[in-house]
Amino acid sequence: MSGGDRDRIGDLALIALRHGRLSAAEARALQARVDRDPAALAVLADWDAQDDALAALYDPVAAEPLPPAMTAALEAARRAEAPLRAPARPQPAPAPRRALSGLRRIAASVALLGLGAAGGWGAAVTMRPGGAPAPMSVSTAAMRAHEAFAVEPIRAVEVTGDNRPQLESWLSKRLGHEIAAPDLGALGFRLMGGRIVPMDQGPMDSVAAMFIYEDDAGHRATLYVAPQPAGTETAFRFVDKEGMQGFWWIDRGMGYAVVGTFPRSVIENLASAVHSQLG
Description:
alpha+beta, 7-stranded antiparallel β-sheet
């Protein structure tokens, strides 16, 4: 690994800085590094631009009155939660970088959850600007693939990890994109192998690739890789669904997701290792 690679500030560190997840001393030290790193500054500027785009999209929705059914549901949730609230504790210092306001976060979250409201709220759920339907997210597709194949005791993979060059060549050809299986041995996971996964979106012949890894206890994690529309880029995103957790991102026309039924810290370490090797 070159000195430049070692000095690179990773997305997870930038996310922690941006959202105030570091101690005051850690934040000062990292901010000093960021101020000297044009690449890190560019990433943060890009995230600011994404926040502005979200604000432009959802502020008009947030300004609309809530539908009566949604207002009643929120009020019922507040009443149910009130007896369970713990005494207030000191709040951490504000994040050094700006983020969406609470109202904008609520508007975006409610819109994306699709609560069945009419009018502007409902339109924000199902449509993107320009009227195009929103495609299935990388994380959703990755979790479906994990549920379908990672649990298979024998036929989880089509080509085993023992045939690594053949596996990588085959998946690269099918994806139309050069892909190498990340080495996660340092984290206690060996490559079982991989397979092709049909995609729910895109042309009939669109496929995704999945690498399956296993730890010494036989627990499995998967890396899902799929082509994405041109111009789509994201930083790290976390997703949690019914005990399954994952980190996903989109980079240079390819979507990646690391998924498993492990604690968040384990999935985060795996995703970080994958990102550093494929980046």
